[in-house]
Structures are given as structure tokens and as C-alpha cells.
Amino acid sequence: MIILKTEEELERMRVSGRLAAELRDRVAERIEPGVTTAELDEYARDILKSMEAESAFYGYHGYPGNICISINDEVVHGIPGKRKVKAGDIVSLDVGVRYEGFVGDTARTVVVGQVDEEVMRLVAVTEEALAAGIAQARAGKRLSDISHAIESVVEMAGFAVVREFVGHGVGRNLHEDPQIPNFGPPGRGPELRPGMTLAIEPMVNLGGAGVRVLKDGWTVVTKDGKPSAHFEHTVAVGPGPAEILTCQKEKE
Ligand code: MF3
Ligand code: CO
Ligand code: CO
After folding, report:
1. Cα–ligand 2 centroid distance for 14 (angstroms)
2. What value does the mean pLDDT take over residues 157-170?
3. Is position 75 within any domain?
4. Domain count, the chain
5. Ligand 1, atom 12: closest residue by C-alpha
6. How far apart are CA 24 and CA 41, in angstroms?
7. Beta partners for 74?
8. What are the pLDDT digits (tens) for 104-124?
9. Nearest to 110 by CA among 98, 128, 122
10. How many whole angstroms separate alpha carbon 176 and alpha carbon 170?
């Protein structure tokens, strides 16, 4: 069941969304060669504390981190630890913030120092794919119009969409209906309505689409060891263009 949010609830989603965006970007600014992912996670924990907010990830199905940090061939759900970031890495940060009962979920991939041209393109295309998906998140469109727009951008660029993990509704819970695959034909699924709040999140691989989960039970990596990028926004469907809730600006 897709939970539509009232205007009052949307107002609260705007707050948690803005906090999530701030957390994402403040942690991103701390990324530099030599920093460990555990240090980034502790920094995130301190910021959440100062916001009087909670991680929506910590303890979720037993997840041990405050945020997810996934490097290079790690796709999503990387657990913070002793690993040091180095020049030439791409680092995907995914944060979920719960504030006064509502969740904002957002991710971005950060490039550290100089990386290959092809990897730069992977990151840019993944962000473009997210924008193309958001552009379809309008009242009257169907859910899979989002999926199809994302897949089209990725395929045109010659990269591969991850199929095992999907976007989702978000609200009082981190994961609500509907699931939002990043692939598929257009014009399918429920009609989009004002009040739907969606986390749209393409995960894009430079090589093949295949992924597997490491023995830690969380970290998703590409089967071929090639890099992967991830961008995510929480958006609200309205009468006009979708409102991006996980941005730091008050209004566009
Ligand atoms: N942030 C992920 C998503 O975008 C979910 C992370 S679940 C966790 O849906 F348990 F790993 F935190
Ligand atoms: Co996320
Ligand atoms: Co999400």
C-alpha cells in the first residue's frame, strides 16, 4: 500500500530531507586520502547527534553503521571500518536521517583526486540518470516511467543498471511501497499521485550488471570488480515537477 502524505506530513519530510542532505554533504567534504570509513561514520554520528536526529540505518535489520560507505567496486551497503580512502577512489555515501518520525534518504558518489575518464563518466551518467528519473515523477505518470527513464540514460551511455536493488517509497519508514526498479518498460505500475514520497536511486556499474553480497552479509560488490556509482534523492510528487526533499536549499 502506498502511503500518501498530507501537507503537514510533507512539511516534516522537508525537514528530515534537508537534514539528510546536510549530513550527506558535510560527510562528503571530509573525504580525503587517508581518512578511514569508520572516521567518516563517527563524524556522521556526531552530526546526527547535534541535529537531534537519528540514523535511519543504524540497527536496521541489524545494520552496524550510521551511514553506508561503498568504495569503487562496492555498489551499496558498505559497512564503515578500517579501510582508508585513497586518491583515485570513488566513494558512495548513503545516509538516512529520521527526524521527528520522518525519514530522508539520499546518496551521492564522490570522486577522490584524479580518476579515469571512464569512471568520471560513470559518476556523471548515474547522476544524470537520477535527474531523468525524477523528471518522470509527476502526477499522472506511471511508476515505471521513472524506471524506464533511468535505464534509458544508462543504456545510452553503455553502462549497466543493477537489478537486485531498487528505489522505494519513504516516509515514517525507511522502506515503504512501492518498489522502484531502475529498469523496465514505461507505462506500467501505479499512477503517480500528489503526496507520494519516493526515494529514487540508480545504482550503475561500469562493467556488467551482476552483483554479489560479501560474507559480512551487507556489502554489495560488482561481480567483475569494476566500479559502481550511486545517487539517490527523496522526492515528493506534486501537481507539477517533483520536489526534491533531500536538497539543502529552502526552495528552488
Ligand atoms: N539507504 C539504503 C537505501 O537507499 C538502505 C540502507 S539499509 C542499511 O534504501 F541497513 F544498510 F542501512
Ligand atoms: Co539510501
Ligand atoms: Co533508499
Report:
1. 16
2. 98
3. yes
4. 1
5. 57
6. 11
7. 221
8. 999 999 999 999 999 999 999
9. 122
10. 5
**Residue 60 CA, closest ligand 1 atom number:** 10
The residue whose CA has the least distance to atom 4 of ligand 1 is 105
Residue 65 lies in a domain: yes
**Residue found under cell 540514460:** 153
Measuring from atom 7 of ligand 1, which residue has the nearest CA? 57
**Which residue has cell 543493477?**
162
Q: Give residue 250's pLDDT band: very low, low, confident or very high (50, 70, 90).
A: low
What is the tens place of the pLDDT at every residue in 45-100?
Answer: 999 999 999 999 999 999 999 999 999 999 999 999 999 999 999 999 999 999 99
Q: Which of 66, 68, 170 to mutate to test the pocket of ligand 1 (most atoms within 8 A of CB)?
A: 68
Please name which ligand lies nearest the alpha carbon of 165.
1
CB 122 within 8 A of CB 222: no
Does any domain span residue 187? Answer: yes
Q: Tell me which residue range forms the domain holding 60.
A: 7-244
Please check whether residue 250 lies inside any domain of the structure.
no
Quick: pLDDT tens for 171-214.
Answer: 999 999 999 999 999 999 999 999 999 999 999 999 999 999 99
Q: What is the CATH number of the domain that holds 136?
A: 3.90.230.10
